[in-house]
């Protein structure tokens, strides 16, 4: 089954071993093609949802009562959510390219194996090595996205507490006119003034 160097080439395979390995190779091709197709589908769905979600978030913010939310906090919150979505996009895109490369390289190695230029052991080892390529980057982007989500939630919670109120003396912010009186609000020593 193996040549003088302990490696198995296609021409060395006989009977059931040959059928089993050929079936495995074909199944692996289908598996990688399916994974690549699913990754592509997820990237496209993600892009649609991100764009739609971004529009909804902006419209939702514009429709809020600006007296109840600090504009600065809201902008920072949206910024962190945008970075989080961007990192999710990087993760999904890197996953797509990772599976595409796995499928392409598997097909190249499969052809080399069938052409007697690559042993079964090398085919298997190459695939296992490539399966780990890109995992560090995908994990980094995924973790960064989660951190952005958490920071955005914290800042958003602060923003929902409202604008900080000044505690020093201030002049009238609002004057409400009711006949026959004028009532001045938001003044430390609110007074009623009659006309």
Question: Secondary-structure map with pairings?
Answer:
Layout: H1 15-62, H2 71-114, H3 120-132, H4 135-160, E1 174-178, E2 181-185, E3 192-194
Q: What labels describe this entry?
A:
195 residues, mainly alpha, three-stranded antiparallel sheet, 3 strands, disordered C terminus
Arithmetic mean of pLDDT: 74
- How many beta strands in the DSSP annotation? 3
Largest sheet: 3 strands, antiparallel
Estimated helix fraction: 55-70%
Report strand order across the widest sheet. 1-2-3
The end-to-end span amounts to 109 Å
Order of helices and strands: HHHHEEE
The total number of structural domains is: 2
Count of DSSP H/I helices? 4
What is the subunit arrangement here?
A: single chain
Dominant shape: elongated
Q: Report the C-alpha radius of gyration, rounded.
A: 32 Å
State the low-pLDDT regions, or none. 165-184, 186-195
| SS-derived structural category | mainly alpha
Share of residues in strands = 5-15%
